[in-house]
Input
Amino acid sequence: MENKRKVYISLPISGYDIEERRDTAMKMEIRLRGCGFDVFNPLGDGWVEGLTTQQYMKRDLKGLLECDTIIFLKGFNHSAGCHTEMTNAFATGMDIWFEEQVNMELK
Output
């Protein structure tokens, strides 16, 4: 059985329209799945409305640790949550991708 690369989608959420963020994450998820990747989308995988930021981060970090790759979408550098995910990705030796890089490679 082939072991698929699992990619975590990291994007800023707080301060944005949640439906726009969900749409942005879903578009990337569809693209990645179309290229044969398994995906953890924090706005799709078990999303529950009404949690605190800390509760979302705990849930998302568990999902992150199940992945071997993380992709940072535009605006990540202005997000405390994305910064936390990046720190964990570095600490655990994950492959790190950026949306601009993937846009060129997945055309």
